[in-house]
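ARCHIVE CARD
CATEGORY: sequence design from structure
SOURCE FIELD: tokenized fold
FIELD CONTENT:
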């Protein structure tokens, strides 16, 4: 029965050991980018791991492409963080200061003392950020890119032809409509013509590589979406069973997937020279995962709030324009108050959009009513 349903059974320790002995290791782009975004001790250990695995290391062309597309976002994002954090703290402190200044009197709060303390805090924070900015490891990160490039020399798959892209687009649309993994969670991705098929392209290349080499594949990725993982009651059990079965059917080989932190623990068990710093590396990786989760939660919240604000703005515009069925048709309106509210809504929309890069509808009509 196990042979008929291989994807539904957890691999034994013996099976995992055999897999590691012969597997091709395929890091995803998000894993390669870890070599650029973490502190020096973590960066060095990750590069050392890839050096140990070099003889069995390989990436599809699409992985390398996604790495290069996102590399500057990671590098420049780290460099921009200093000024961005200073601006955010200055804005937060200014709001707190303004709130203090609005206190006409208070029996216990010394307004001037608290204002001075806030000013000292922001000055100290700015000084620490400037010091960190001056020691930013630009050269070390450039060296990491060079080392990654050398490690992956002659270990990158071929770029797809236009005919292959046309075929994957047709197949991908059909697979995604039926929620056949992997990649269907990217079906609504608003990007380049073939970007939403990136995971499927990587999948097809791994199958072809396994078949050509006669070796199993171990895929290392921090992509946590359900179109890669078998998730039961919130817990990852391993790769989607459909993936294991398709991989065996198409290549005759086995397939396994690890999150990077999990992969590190297995690698350290097999390579004792790595054990000393695994905990430090994993700590940094988990902190990065948590930060990404917070960013995703904020983006989702911002998108929801943005829709609410835009809906209210549309109602205000309808009221100001005297549209039939609007609030103006039901009751008398205070046009001055509505224009003030419209200005507030537009300011909040711009603030959310600037912070999150969220696309908003054209403001020209709203601005004309605000100033009209």
């Amino acid at each position: 029965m196990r042979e008929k349903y291989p994807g539904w059974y957890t691999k034994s320790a013996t099976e995992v050991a055999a897999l590691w002995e012969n597997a091709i290791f395929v890091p995803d782009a998000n894993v390669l980018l870890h070599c650029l975004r973490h502190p020096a001790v973590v960066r060095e250990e990750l590069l050392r791991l890839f050096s140990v695995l070099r003889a069995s290391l390989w990436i599809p062309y699409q992985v390398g492409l996604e790495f290069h597309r996102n590399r500057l976002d990671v590098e420049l994002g780290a460099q921009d963080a200093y000024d961005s954090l200073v601006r955010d703290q200055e804005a937060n402190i200014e709001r707190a200061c303004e709130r203090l200044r609005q206190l006409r009197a208070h029996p216990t709060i010394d307004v001037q003392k608290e204002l001075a303390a806030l000013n000292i805090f922001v000055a100290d924070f700015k000084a620490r950020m400037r010091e960190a900015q001056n020691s930013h490891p630009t050269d070390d990160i450039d060296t990491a890119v060079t080392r990654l490039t050398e490690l992956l020399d002659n270990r990158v798959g071929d770029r797809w032809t236009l005919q292959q892209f046309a075929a994957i687009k047709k197949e991908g649309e059909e697979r995604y409509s039926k929620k056949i993994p992997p990649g269907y969670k990217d079906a609504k991705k608003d990007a380049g013509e073939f970007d939403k098929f990136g995971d499927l392209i990587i999948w097809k290349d791994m199958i072809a590589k396994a078949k050509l080499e006669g070796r199993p594949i171990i895929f290392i990725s921090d992509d946590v979406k359900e179109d890669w993982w078998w998730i039961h009651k919130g817990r990852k059990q391993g790769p989607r069973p459909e993936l294991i079965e398709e991989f065996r059917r198409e290549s005759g080989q086995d397939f396994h997937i690890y999150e990077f932190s999990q992969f590190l623990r297995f690698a350290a068990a097999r390579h004792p020279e790595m054990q000393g710093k695994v905990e430090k590396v994993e700590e940094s990786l988990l902190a990065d995962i948590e930060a990404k989760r917070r960013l995703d939660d904020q983006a989702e919240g911002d998108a929801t709030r943005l829709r609410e604000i835009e809906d209210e703005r549309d109602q205000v515009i309808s009221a100001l324009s005297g549209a039939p069925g609007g609030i103006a048709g039901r009751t008398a309106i205070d046009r001055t108050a509505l224009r003030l509210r419209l200005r507030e809504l537009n300011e909040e929309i711009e603030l959310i959009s600037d912070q999150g890069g969220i696309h908003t509808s054209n403001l020209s009509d709203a601005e004309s009513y605000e100033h009209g």
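CARD ANNOTATION: The longest strand covers residues 235-239. The chain has 14 helices and five strands.
SHELF: design records, drawer C
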